[in-house]
Amino acid sequence: MSGLRMSMEVVDPEILTLLARLEQHDTGTYAHSMRVAEYCDWFASHLNMRRMDRQRFVHSALLHDIGKLRIPSEVLNKNTKLTDEEWREIRNHPVYGMEYVSGLADRNIVLPDVIMLHHENTDGTGYPFNSRTSELSAQVRIIRVIDSFDAMTSNRNYQLVKNVDEALAELIRCEGTLYDPEIVRLFCAHIQDASKSS
Ligand SMILES: [Fe+2]
């Protein structure tokens, strides 16, 4: 991965302002969002996604966790077990995210479903709506995989961090339940190709 192909200089100022707020609120979530957007851009290029669709997808990936602005950073970084109330708040971050991106969605700069549905699972066990695959766009199913892959390979708890092969094995283990099998297959193939040629 060599950085976002789309220059951040051409990203809408409203997106940059939100990202700056996120960086200040929680650097871990900010760094994760940048990496997820980078993977989404890279993966979309392999899928030959149309330029405008790809751009909207990357903008949405940059802001997929923007709803975490509403959640105290102590809760986001808590090392001990979350209370039920804290967990409820965390599970609401996709809905909170919509409050921040409604203007961008109205201008057709982001895809609201990517922000709202990025924690929905293929088998309908995700949150916040228990949506099923048939209700999820390709971009939503892609970010579900990439979000998890980045979380696994860059976990801030060193004990829990997985190498690339372990993370791909985990994606395969959970295909059909958490993840769309076709997206997992394509993602694994492209990551393996990229690691062979690097
Ligand atoms: Fe999230």
Automatic annotation (TrEMBL):
Q: EC number(s) in its UniProt entry?
A: 3.1.4.-
> Under which name does UniProt file this protein?
HD-GYP domain-containing protein
Classification via InterPro entries: HD/PDEase_dom, HD_GYP_dom
Record keywords? Hydrolase
State one Pfam family annotation. HD_5
Question: Which CDD domains does the record associate with it?
Answer: HDc
Q: Where is the HD-GYP domain?
A: 7-198
Origin species: Paenibacillus aurantiacus
The domain of life is: Bacteria
Q: Molecular function terms in GO for this entry?
A: hydrolase activity
